[in-house]
Amino acid sequence: MDTVVDVPFRLLNRKAHINSIESYRAMHTRSIKDPEKFWGEVASEFYWNISWKRVLSYNFNVRNGPIFIKWFEGGKTNICYNALDRHIQEGKGERVAFYFEGNEPNTFTSYTYRLLLQKVCKFSNALLKIGVKKGDRVIIYMPMIIELIIAVLGCARIGAVHSVVFGGFSSEALAIRIVDAGAECIITADGILRGPKQIPLIPIVQKAIGICKDNNLVVSKVILKNWVGFKAEDEKFISWDNLVDTCKSECSVEWLDSEDPLFLLYTSGSTGTPKGVLHSIAGYMVYASLTHRYAFDYHEGDVFWCTADIGWITGHTYTIYGPLLNGATSILFEGIPTYPDGGRFWSICEKYAVTQFYTAPTAIRSLMGLDSHFLEKHDLSSLRVLGTVGESINSEAWLWYYKAVGKQKCAVVDTYWQTETGGLMVSPLPGAAPAKPGSCALPFFGVQVQVLNPDGTPAAAGQEGCIVFDRPWPGIMRTIFKDHNRFEKSYFSVFPGHYTAGDSGFFDEDGYLWVVGRIDDVMSVSGHRIGASEVENAIALNKDIAEVAAVGIDHEVKGQSIWVFCVLRPQGTLNEGEIILYSVPNLKLKLAMVELTNDLKLKVRQQVGAFATPERIVVVESLPKTRSGKIMRRLLRDIFSRVKKQKLGDCSTVSEPQVIKNLVKQAMTLQL
Ligand code: ATP
Ligand code: MG
Question: Boundaries of each AMP-binding enzyme C-terminal domain copy (predicted)?
């Protein structure tokens, strides 16, 4: 679908930073022609203890030796200083940095830049007191509370390398990351509040520490924030509150080299074993700030809300660093979108008059399926920019976001990027160009993106190929922790001279990029290459379908055949009673299923072509997802593949292990 949506930007009552396609192109060209000048100017906005000697040096081609990327070499700075102290020096200490909205709607408070700095300094002093030093890796495993942000910035201030692990991970997944990072210090809390649930973290941490010990890693320091009220019986744990209590609220800054490591973050694990992505300080700082300012058209006085958990890169760059570096006021939300009811996100937008709202397609899809009164009862007129990230967004969901949430007055920015890229790479800029639902549009400043054929030649417009980036941007990862070889192999060996993202996509005639999906998820049927999302978009046109995943299952003749897995909407044309009866032989339901299957096949034939007609349509209760909410097509492929696999791929990142068990049971009954 290629409908162009021209956002009525004049209605937004504010001038966008970049308000025409011409000014976007002029600035993009400048950033590509003279990156040193462009990024040097951006970097000058920050405080440098010692200025850099050279803006950029790099080798992007494995044939010329090891890959390396260095930005602002010779410079010394500190990202925490630039995110907090600098604004206070400029007289903005009383500005709110975060509105904290707790799990319960009546738990909320705010933190000014001055207060946040005091708390960060106390915590940095606490870290120093227990012996954490520059270069040490520190694992942060916490709920979405202000102490998580304080812990991150507290590390950054003294040069410790933070590695946040999403609070939903199990002991095993946590332990793998602690061991890989070689971290001897963990910062955690007693528990997490998630909607009606109280989830204890202490037993998970204890078990993880045990696993680490079995792997010859002694975790000697555990700082525990008392939050939910669970008792810690382990005396080895140091109480956050007691520790910080005696620390001073000033802490001098450790001036760090531009290329010193800032953080380590593991990828979501959608395609395989998570990778320990390492980001360094100065380039990331410059890139996080500029992307936040332009892609969300951030202006002073705005209230920015990125809903991503800080355990993911989106939370790092657009909940913490980007907004703070721009002196912005943001929301930090502890809870979930459906508690106490399905209108929670919208009630928060109304309460704080949020201007930019940034979330993931998985959240948009689930909220879209709820009764419309949850949305309609809230005043969302403050919103100007609606962002999405993490997966391709199908046009139905895009249009719902634009129309129902944005009332056709907001720019929708579909931002394409990765843990590895540090910040968004391809995105429409609000006010610069019309949007196309489902396309992430144009490269950000400093980004040169291409779509390549397998032989390395550029693909023609409309032709699908591999998405690559031609040159380093400041936010690019520097290595995979302790595995530079895997870094070079994963990203630089397929097309020497380019960074390969691992996703496929195409450009349309207007130069807009359309991400089709992960290369691993591309299906090959009788020699035709078909992106999962093309089939899924067609299926999603049926209003009974809540969620869908298409995968290629091995087939003796065709190579692969397409199987479609879908979750039905609770209130579809199949009424609830019929869905409950699904597992029992029931004529009425069977007829409804035949009708549904026929319609879905027809939709794919019409939208994609007969060659892509699904061989099977399987209704499932839930799709397997990562903890960040992304559909794990590789597991569906493994489970339903006719070739009996010894073992499923890495399951450590699956959010609900029960979903896998149910799918395996269902696969058995299909008599593969
Ligand atoms: P792993 O690398 O461990 O398999 P992952 O790729 O899911 O996990 P992330 O770095 O969190 O880990 O996700 C980046 C990927 O998410 C991208 O490579 C792309 O496949 C997908 N993605 C992100 N944003 C978009 C978007 N706007 N449109 C389409 N796909 C997107
Ligand atoms: Mg990835």
Answer: 534-630
pLDDT confidence of residue 576: 38
Of the listed ligands, the closest to the CA of 391 is: 1
Regarding the beta carbon of 394 and ligand 1, being less than 6 Å apart is answered no
CA of 476 to the centre of ligand 1 (A): 15
> Is residue 359 in contact with ligand 1, taking CB distance under 6 Å?
no
Is residue 33 packed enough to be buried (19+ CB in 10 Å), middle (13-18) or exposed (0-12)? exposed
Residue 642, both tokens = 């006719």
* DSSP one-letter string for 443-463: BPTT--EEEE-TTSSBPPTT-
Q: State the closest ligand 1 atom to the C-alpha of 416, by its place in the atom list counted from 1.
A: 27
Q: Which two tokens stand for residue 232?
A: 């810690």
How many Å lie between the centroid of ligand 1 and the Cα of residue 39?
26
SS3 label, residue 475 = coil
Q: Is 309 in the pocket of ligand 1 (CB under 6 A)?
A: no
Q: Whose CA is nearest to atom 13 of ligand 1?
A: 418
Do residues 249 and 235 lie in contact, with contact meaning Cβ atoms separated by under 8 Å? Answer: no
* pLDDT tens figures, 486-527: 999 999 999 999 999 999 999 999 999 999 888 877 788 877
- Separation of CA 223 and ligand 1 centre (Å): 32
- The answer to whether residues 490 and 67 touch, using CB atoms and an 8 Å cutoff, is no
What is the pTM for the complete model shown? Answer: 0.88
Q: At what angle do helices 633-640 and 657-669 cross, to 10 degrees?
A: 30
Per-residue pLDDT tens digits for 96-146: 999 999 999 999 999 999 999 999 999 999 999 999 999 999 999 999 999
How far are the Cα atoms of 29, 65, 83, 389, 623 from residue 568, in angstroms, in the given order? 46, 52, 45, 24, 11
